Amino acid sequence: xxxxxxxxxxxxxxxxxxxxxxxxxxxxxxxxxxxxxxxxxxxxxxxxxxxxxxxxxxxxxxxxxxxxxxxxxxxxxxxxxxxxxxxxxxxxxxxxxxxxxxxxxxxxxxxxxxxxxxxxxxxxxxxxxxxxxxxxxxxxxxxxxxxxxxxxxxxxxxxxxxxxxxxxxxxxxxxxxxxxxxxxxxxxxxxxxxxxxxxxxxxxxxxxxxxxxxxxxxxxxxxxxxxxxxxxxxxxxxxxxxxxxxxxxxxxxxxxxxxxxxxxxxxxxxxxxxxxxxxxxx
Length: 282
Fold this sequence. Notes:
The chain is an alpha/beta fold. The chain has nine helices and nine strands. Helix content is about 50%, strand content about 15%.
């Protein structure tokens, strides 16, 4: 395990609430230094009062590429290193695929994909130079499976998963590790105030109601507590060989197993078509 007693520098986006705030507190509590970003800096006032110079609050909208690069540079200049980057900023766009406007879909991708991309690109030169670093991308069980009414959100997380898996192989030789955090349902405001909703089409009212009822039946255990996830995150960060992907919560593993079993079954059932497409079918 990595020596967690040596103070490290974190850069965490989306720290006003939820995972970002809880993880920033966990890092600060053990003596690390944190550059915490939020669109509304007043949400960090209490942390500044409590932790003083160990916390660098930065106002940031992650969709602004130039501001992302400036914020990461500011954190490095302040603390002299950049050890752990957590791309947590994001939101959920609700709506059936047919209901989504072009702008709603683009906005979802700008925040959840491009925001993480810009921060990652900004951090990599510093990490390559010091030949070490951890990049944690907050994905979701929705990054490997998909459900109705959040197609745009799933698209953003699948894109995040894809470029992050490629990135992990690209930077491994520099001592940089990439981990995709894939939470299930937690009591963040992902589906609350920070979420966005399309204008519903009446044609989907009955379908929507059916899916909502099915979702309520699945979520019998209730959402997880974001504060409880901090210990899990620190264990990942402190590992000498952190995983490329890790679930947070009890539900995701069963969802993933069922989804991938279904995929393999379908691929095998249609393998004759795969062979036919290659010209080797009968």
